[in-house]
Amino acid sequence: MGGPLLNKKYLAIVMIIIAMVSLLAVGGNQNDSLAKAATEPPPPVASGAICLNRGTVPDAELHWLYIPESAAELATEENYLYLAGRLIESGVVDASDCPAGGMGAGGYANACGLAAARPIVIELQNAYDEAILQAWQDVGVPPVLLKQLIRYESQFWPGQWGTYHFGLSHLTYYGAYTALYWSPVLFQRACDPTYGGRCEAYFIDAMMIGSFLQNVNADCPTCPYKIDIAKAQKSINYIAHALLAYCRQTAQIVSNATGQSTPGAVVDYATIWKLTLYNYNAGSICLYNAVRDAYESIEGQITWLDIAGYVGSGSCELGVGYVNKITEPYYAFPPGE
After folding, report:
1. pLDDT for res 337
2. What is the distance between the terminal CA atoms of the chain, rounded to a whole angstrom?
3. For the whole model, what pTM was predicted?
4. What is the helix (H) or strand (E) element at residue 137, kind and residue range?
5. Which of 35, 83, 209, 324 could potentially form a cystine with 155 if both were Cys, beta carbons 3.0 to 4.6 Å apart?
6. Which helix (H) or strand (E) covers residue 40, if one does?
7. Rounded CA gap, 139 and 267, in Å?
8. What are the pLDDT digits (tens) for 198-213?
9. DSSP letter string over 189-240?
10. How far apart are CA 225 and CA 86, in angstroms?
């Protein structure tokens, strides 16, 4: 039963979060539909078919839903100040000749530090492209979306950020809980090393969450770049399954919020993935309320723009910018255009 363990402080935090999730499950009537989406046993995998059924993708969405023929099409040469800063602070890059040792504010590199780190910055931002394309083939998560999310979340640094965020996609404890709950694959992967495969269905505890998070956290003080690149590459599959889990939860929330048993009757493929990103960032309550209000107003199929118009303020509103940044034109897709 000896899976990776979190320390006592992290275990306490995880248990508090799980307790909060349980309280939501027995909350007031106003959240009954949402609580049902988050706490009842997940529906069969087939119910999330919209997440895997591309159909015909509109040309206007191909810049982030395009499927590259090779991983080389995903290659970039961007200047990532956070990634450069991590390389300098970890001692991988020597920027001692730069002003302030190559560092700017908040852990980001300054221009001189970026120049010193640039060769490794380029190497690392493309180190996961093969795994990202393989995750499309194995899991079904759109590859450009996945790389864009990693770019936005971590700038391709696969370690721990702060206290609560882990890996290339900055998964949190609550995010890990959602991923394990809505993905039978991840649930089993966390159960096997933690409890020898003997887990009660849908029961997820701090030990399982810790086991899962250790698979996406590639911090490695003894490795050449202070990160375990091979482990980070393997983590792409875990991240892809986590995003698919979020898509399945999102599809259920769309059904609950609209009363439609088939999410595809309400939203299309591009919209369900934008809503998945929104759910990943802003959370299920913001998503449920926005979908409900948009559907009640339009009384028919709704788009991302429709739903974004009904998003509440505060953190709910911030999620709209998150989705738009990840799905904005960034790569030259389709090729030749």
Report:
1. 61
2. 53
3. 0.88
4. helix 129-138
5. 83
6. none
7. 21
8. 998 888 999 999 999 9
9. HHHHHHHTT---TT---HHHHHHHHHHH--B-TTSTTSB-HHHHHHHHHHHH
10. 10
